[in-house]
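A common beginner's mistake is to predict each chain separately and then try to dock the pieces by hand. The better habit, illustrated here, is to supply every component at once so that their relative placement is modeled jointly.
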Amino acid sequence: MGLRAFIRRSIEGIRVESERLREIDPSRIHFLDVVGVLVRIWPYLKPMFGHSLTYIALAIFATGIGVFFAAVNFGLMYNNIILNEPMAPLAASLLFLDPAEWVEVEALTKAQQYQVIFGVLILATVSTSLGELIGHAIHYYRVWILQGINQNLRLHLMGQFQSLSLKFHADSRTGDSIYRLFQDSAMVTQILQVIMDTFMAGVRFFMGLAVVTAFSPMLGLVLLCSWFPLLWLGKRMSAPLRAGFKVARERNAALTSTIQESIEGIRTIKVNGLEGERQRMFDVDSVGAFAAAHDARVRLMLFGFFVFLFGVAPLAFIELRAALFAYDGAETFLRDFLLAFGFGLWNLGGQDQARSNAKQSMAATDGLVKLWGRLQDVAIGLGRVYQILDLTPDVHNRPDARALAPVQDSIRFDEVRFSYPGREVFTDISFEARVGEVTAILGPTGTGKTTLMLLLLRMLEFQGGRISLDGEDIRDFTFESVRSNIALATQENILFSKSLLENIRYARPDASDEEVRAAARVACVDEYVDRLADGYDTFLGERASKLSTGQRQRLVIARAVLKDTPILILDEPTASLDAVHELRIMNRIKEWAEQRTVFLITHRLSTVRQADRIVFLGDGVVADTGSHDELMARPTAYRDFVNAEIESVGTAAGG
Amino acid sequence: MAEAAIPQQAPAQAADTITSGEALRIIGRAMRYTFVFRFDLAVKAAAQMTSIFWILVLPWPAKVVIDYIVLRDTDPSATVESIPPFFFKPLLAMVEPLSAYQTVFFMGALFLLMVVLAGAYGTDGAQRSNTETELAQGQDTATKSENDANNMHSLVGGLFGLFEALWHIRITHRLNHRLRSELFGRFNAHRVTDFNDRSIGDVVYRGMYDTPSISNIIFNLWVGPATSAVNLATTILMMFLVFRNIPVVVWCALAVAPTSFLGVLYFARLMRRQGTLAREAGSVTTATIEEEMANVMAVQGMGSDKEDRARFAAASADSFKRFRGVVLVNVLSAFTTTVITTCMVFLVFFFLAPEFIEGRLAPGDWWVIWGYFGAIAASSVYLGRLWFSLQENVTGMRRVFAILDAPVEALAGDRARQEFDDTFALTEGVRLEAVDYDYPDGTRALTGIDFEGRIGQMVALAGPTGAGKSTLAYLIPALLTPTSGRYYLDGRQLTQFDLAAVRRQVAFVFQETSIFNDTIEGNIRMGRRGATDEEVREAARIAGVADFIDGLDEGYDTHLGRAGAKLSVGQKQRIAIARALVSNKPILILDEPTAALDPQTENRLMANLREAREGRLVIVIAHRLSTIRSADHIYFLEDGEVVESGTHADLVATGGTYATFVELQSGRTA
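With all components supplied together, the output reads:
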């Protein structure tokens, strides 16, 4: 397997192809998949790569300083203060001491031993001030780098969420998305840790191994062989670990959703007296989340227990065997080389060196295996992020798609078909809307009036037939350019927690204040803005609860008007408006929309009458199309609709 | 007047500084939460103290190996002045008759036993583990909280450490659950107006990421100090027993505590400030995500993904930046502590070295002394930094307590009448007299409202947008309570009821309906859990949604996704109407029920409602003349006041505002 194939195989491990979220199966993820999860971090790491390298270099430097001075200082303390052996040449030269007096002697005098105390203090001061200062400073640097990497991934994920079609959003929970963006994506910050730890562990293991082997090849072999049981353990435990982490993450995401949904529907809950029920649901989810976290952590604890046991047994063997070497006064393996450090024969310092180096190697291994354990959680977390990133938005551009120029003539639907999973919506929709006209879309509740407009916006993809703009297939244009040609005033008044002005300006951030005010006038927003204390600067809470529904509706219309596009879709614009405002707004919009195409979804007869053309939907097809007068002239579904409306007024009047 | 003067409220307030006094109060209050777990915490503290014993024993076997084997010293205690502790003597006695190889074998077995029991032998580094399961975490407060919510603090490993960790995580989980459950309950009890300016993201953040702060507070207040104090005492005792002639080691180690405390005192205040800022920025980010997800249709429909991405990027970057503030304070304080500890180490070394040079201490004592010094210094550092370590958690707890302390909706509710409340069912009607309503910020919404609705009636509220119709309707189920004036149910004042009793009287269909992540049937049954299948289907039929449901593959079991995104607005509204109908309560309020309905459905619904008013009070808010006309009584509102009321015929005859309104409507319809 070549490197390229290796990388592809590892990357594709957790890929998902379809719009539906496939379950991540923890037992089917293998070593390469976990590696692949890490390899895929590269695009997010890339912008921070220079900083990452700098950080790693600094970290190694700081550690190196610490290790080097510690080695020298321990030698001084052991061999020269506790024992009075001659000083090692390296230490002597560092302290600018004459080798003739310090190194090439039988033993140190007491006076010299007292001097060594100061030597140790000087070296320790240097190492502490250098090593600790750098060490602490780069901690902050590291946080900054990791946050940058995390930010890159978050933004990519957020972008993906926004470009997934409404079909996806209909099936997923908001809390789950919050969890993926926040908690799951944070796992990306482990990448530096993984690189550093793996690298440092490798260096430390082999350095330790080299020293131990220099003292005794047999002990070196023991150290090397200690890997096998640990590898087996890592392999054996990773699937159960992943399974635990997966459940823990899913439960936490579900809990987040429970909170979010409860607050979203708080009024309904209150008025139905369901607080107790929601509380019980919350408690079940909360306990479930903790139970899952508990389970996952118990697995990790057991893993850690065995890793330590398997790792430390060889270490004890090495330490005790070395003690016996010292007891026997045996020669070290690389006697001539080690003589420079004072370890020609096994002695106290030698045993300590062998022990501490073996310990270092073992600590590196231990850390690496435990890192592997934690990595299973990282793999699951990032897997949940990639799951979203790998979804192919079902609306996408053809390779040769071009930008749409403003529509000059007409918009046509020809035999358009569309169905939601499990429910057919349109079997054959054909009609034409002309520029400069108001086209009303009518039909009983649930016939798909809004859906029809979402097809035009390409927020949903139709499955058959053709939508053409000035005779050209809509799919020949990029969906971004199609959307930028259309303004949509949604039926559910979606506002953001910003000021009133910004909420209107949301449609076109570069609009001047005058343009915003002009749009506000078209939608009669200006009438109530003047009565607000802060006017256009009034801050709207998340659900703008203090504006009445009608006021919010006008705001949404103003936003659509401001976007100043050739096509305008008004979805039930007047449902919550009183008669006066309805008439006023419709007149102003007609005036404003002279050279535009306006789609009007409505139930209200009074609003329909403003339209030049009526498209009456029924049961997946266009039942009738034509002007009001045309449709009233013959028996049509539309005529029944109008009569029902009039009759209802009549009945009410009589009753 | 609903729209007048809405308070300017930025999403994140600047962090007002928490004083030391408030921090103390917050900590004290957090401690009271743990009182329930006092037994469990005592066991945990006992376990931790026992684990200190393990740590004390650990250095001694290593000394045997060094003195007896490596240095071939047959009787080290004879030549030095140190006195081995009591538990060391039996060990020496055991080793005494053994050969070097036998000793080594014996020690090997001992080491393994210690590893299994306590996860350690020897004094430092790899020979020692503790049971910790810190999982990978990100670099902001929210992702750190996950580890807080699962902390288990165990000093040792092995079987003992496992037990200790499991015991502690049980406490952590129960405590966290209790707190967040209480918080959630409190949110549910808030007045609906409290949610006007609070983002859902903020609620999520407090519930998920602020509550875990209590874990650290509890550990640091109960177990940590107790363990550290005992640890200090026993280690010092041991040191004096063994090395009573070199007390400088002990004094230096002890001096770390007060110097650390003073050294990091300044940082405590900084930490409170940065911690608060970080959490606020995090909750803004959560809110941004939540809004983006909830409003994805507008985002895509307006083609403004780019701006929204920029908005999210800014919020997210800010939360990261604020967290770096926390990191910076931590780094500075840690460095200060390091400098202090290092100075103490130098001092000790300076005094100790001569003892070794003069041969008053055996080489094997070296590790023992440093082991003890390390233990004492670690406890000292812990105690010295305790106040500082608590600060970040204080900021989280403060955000939790702020919610727990916020006023909840409640009526005076005479407890003695509980029994009456439980069985109360409205038989006559409701009446408002001279009711004013002001928003919490003081803005007047309703003025001098007189309103009456009797069982058997259908009452309409009409008027221009923003006249206060919905606000008036909210008063009926006491979602809002009058600022002044009187509200009677069956002639008894509202203040004499408890909230649940009032809510049991009212079914409400809101203008913007809520659909929950449940099946269609579950959503309808929210009105009354005990409803039979027939009743559910009947309600769906009346609401005009039965045909639609029957046409679905899974019918009533169809699961509705995110806030019912699979349904059209009209379908959602009809499900909400079915929900209200199935509840079968004395009062039914419909806020613009027909806005999203086609005329046929509306006619059928209105006909059904006219029937339904038998034994019921139906209150309808509407713009449509057809709906308004069929009411028995009409209240016409303007600018928060009832300007006209009466029957359709009366009002038209009067020729007032309502008549003008009717004229306009009819003109358009005919």
